[in-house]
Write a structure and sequence with these properties.
binds nicotinamide-adenine-dinucleotide, 3-hydroxybutyryl-CoA dehydrogenase activity, 2 domains, 11 helices, 47% helix, 8-stranded mixed beta sheet, 3-OHacyl-CoA_DH_NAD-bd, 8 strands, Rossmann fold, globular, alpha/beta
Length: 284
């Protein structure tokens, strides 16, 4: 099956990055969000990224304009009625994602593949609310999308080999590296990464060290490019909490319980870089 038209749902950190790399690879992209201001924020990020590429001589002004020309605004999910692929990147919440997939199943053409950028939620459970579970798949991009090479491709229980192959080929067209994984909570990336971040938060919570010290230990001692608390701020503390809850619920193992400090920050609206404050404070 050939993919030309794509809809990306959610113009946040991940959705805007996914829309950008798809348009850069020559696909026509509808970028969907619930409100004009959310779309505008996503488009603003894309424009800024592309302008930086022009400034650094990585692309010409006319290439930038051509990429922006392939991006269309969508504030209505019914715009999915003529696309070949939908990549959902709305918030990490099963109820919200299932409601989106139910609607997409009735709106998108019969041949269309429905993909989710979920960090941890079971693809099989998303597929189960549609009448096309064999065409539902996970495409887990990494943050920031234009920079990071990996895409975890997650097969749901019913995903066909044809659909898997189409998505693997498409991922390569985005100049990304697909890695096949099976459908278990957190897949591979967040099964390993998120408990480490949660443990770093416990280390802060228990007063073992300051946030700067915890980050320094992991940067200087383990050669991580950024410390776990900084990384949590970049991912979004709400997303980190959703992922820990998915691991905790999915495995029923207390080793995955989210740190109370993480819950407290999320309740306070300290969501990390995107809200201006998380473990650290960010200029707007
Ligand atoms: N942040 C990360 O590092 C990261 C990495 C990989 C995957 N993910 C996953 O990507 C998804 C999005 O994460 P994010 O960090 O971009 O979040 P975000 O909060 O930056 O963006 C989410 C966007 O989705 C929009 N949205 C919510 N409900 C919607 C709906 N019904 N229809 C259309 N738009 C809707 C919101 O308005 C917002 O703009 C989550 O599933 C997350 O787990 C995140």
């Amino acid at each position: 099956m050939s993919i030309q038209k794509i809809m990306v749902i959610g113009a946040g950190q991940m959705g805007s990055g996914i829309a950008q790399v798809c348009a850069q690879a020559g696909f026509d992209v509808k970028l969907n969000d619930m409100k004009e201001e959310f779309f505008a924020r996503g488009l603003g990020t894309i424009t800024k990224n592309l302008s930086r590429n022009v400034d650094k001589g990585r692309m010409t002004e006319s290439e930038k304009e051509a990429i922006l020309g392939r991006l269309t605004k969508s504030l209505d999910i019914n715009d999915a009625n003529d696309v070949d692929l939908v990549i959902e990147a709305a918030v990490e919440n099963m109820g919200i994602k299932q409601s989106i997939f139910k609607q997409l199943d009735t709106i998108a053409p019969a041949h269309a593949i429905l993909a989710s950028n979920t960090s941890s939620l079971p693809i099989t459970e998303l597929a189960a609310v549609t009448n096309r579970p064999e065409q539902v798949i996970g495409m887990h991009f990494m943050n920031p999308v234009p920079v990071m090479k990996l895409v975890e491709i997650i097969r749901g229980l019913a995903t066909t080999d044809d659909v898997y192959q189409t998505i693997e080929d498409m991922t390569k067209k985005l100049e990304k590296v697909p890695v096949e994984v099976n459908d278990f909570p957190g897949f591979v990336a967040n099964r390993i990464l998120m408990p480490m971040i949660n443990e770093a938060i416990y280390t802060l919570y228990e007063g073992v060290a300051t946030k700067e010290a915890i980050d320094d230990v992991m940067k200087l001692g383990m050669n991580h490019p950024m410390g776990p608390l900084t990384l949590a701020d970049f991912i979004g503390l709400d997303t980190c909490l959703y992922i820990m809850e998915t691991l905790y619920e999915g495995f029923g193992d207390s080793k995955y319980r989210p740190c109370p400090l993480l819950r407290k920050y999320v309740k306070a609206g300290w969501l990390g870089k995107k809200s201006g404050r998380g473990f650290y404070i960010y200029e707007s």
